[in-house]
Design a protein that fits this description.
Blueprint (H helix, E strand, L loop, with lengths): L5 E5 L23 H12 L3 E6 L4 H12 L4 E6 L10 H4 L8 H6 L9 E5 L2 E2 L2 H12 L5 E8 L10 E9 L2 E13 L2 E6 L6 E3 L4 E9 L3 H16 L10 H10 L4 E6 L5 E2 L6 H13 L12
Parallel strand pairs: 1-2, 1-4, 2-3, 6-12
Antiparallel strand pairs: 4-11, 5-13, 6-11, 7-8, 7-11, 8-9, 9-10
Length: 304
């Protein structure tokens, strides 16, 4: 049975490696952003609400562009990624930090906006139609004590222009057994993954599944995030600039504590993204070809 479900879009990143606010970088035939295609695919797959997690400074830009484009097609809400959800005893430490705290905190900032099953995505990643269809079906039938991840082959997620963060997964019988946040790159024909807090790299098979932050949750994830945030800040508060509160780490904790079973859903979709400015032509060409093949209309929204 189809149910209400939300698409949470993490859009507060500054795009430092890209060299600008890449969430608002036009890539489609009529100036569409990657985020437009994500919302279009989600609506087709049955999602009923979108929550943007943004910085307050960028709220007007988002509402005047993306928000106004899509609000006639789907319910739209905004959550601000700020320090309002940091426990009081840690706020003085966090106020000195200049970068966003991490993906787990971005999700936590939307806790007052979501009371239904939801999917999480990055604003600047293209995930593909099949991925949203499978995500929607999973959320319609989500099982108590289960979360989901849509997994992509690592070879289909790499930028030719440098390293990128990926959640490298160990999977057995379609269940996640371990996830490690790594920097991954293609080096001399080999795919090398190095954990974020280690200099040791290891070679990955091209079919290794990685998490691209297309994550599927029930709302009880916010209770887990609350507990884990407090522990994270207790451990790293005095050296907070050198650590990030990342969702793969939280998921790995759920596995180690036997709190959740995490299902891994394979997709036939191809992932595209703009980690670096030089990646943009690849995304533009891919979306143009999909439009020419009829997968998308020439103009996604009437009010562009």
């Amino acid at each position: 049975m189809k149910k209400d479900k939300t698409l949470l879009i993490m859009a507060a990143g500054l795009g430092s490696r890209f060299g600008g606010l890449k969430q608002l970088e036009p890539v489609g035939p009529n100036g569409e952003f990657i985020i437009d295609y994500s919302i279009y695919d989600a609506i087709e797959a049955g999602f009923t609400k979108v929550v943007f997690v943004v910085k307050e400074d960028f709220y007007e830009s988002f509402r005047e562009t993306i928000g106004k484009r899509v609000e006639n097609y789907i319910r739209v809400e905004y959550a601000f990624q700020n320090n309002n959800y940091i426990p009081t005893r840690f706020k003085s430490l966090i106020n000195k930090r200049t970068k966003p705290l991490g993906t787990a905190y971005a999700i936590y900032c939307a806790k007052d906006k979501i009371n239904e099953p939801f999917a999480v995505i990055n604003a600047d990643d293209y995930y593909g139609k099949d991925a949203y269809i499978k995500a929607s079906s999973y959320l319609d039938n989500i099982i108590y004590n289960h979360y989901g991840i849509v997994g992509y082959m690592v070879s289909n997620t790499l930028s030719p222009n440098g390293a990128a963060k990926r959640g490298v997964m160990e999977v057995g019988n379609h269940k996640l057994s371990k996830i490690t946040e790594c920097k991954v790159m293609n080096k001399k024909g080999k795919i090398i993954a190095s954990p974020l807090h280690s200099s040791k790299g290891k070679e990955l098979d091209e079919n290794t599944l990685v998490c691209m932050n297309l994550l599927l949750f029930s709302p009880d994830i916010f209770d887990i995030l609350s507990d884990e945030l407090y522990l994270f800040l207790s451990l790293h508060g005095k050296d907070i600039d050198n650590f990030e509160f990342q969702i793969p780490d939280v998921l790995d904790t759920c596995l180690r504590k036997n709190i959740k079973t995490i299902d891994v859903i394979n997709t036939t979709s191809t992932w595209y993204g703009m980690t670096y400015k030089e990646d943009k032509p690849l995304v533009v060409n891919a979306l143009r070809e999909m439009t020419e093949e009829g997968l998308y209309p020439q103009k996604l929204w009437k009010n562009i």
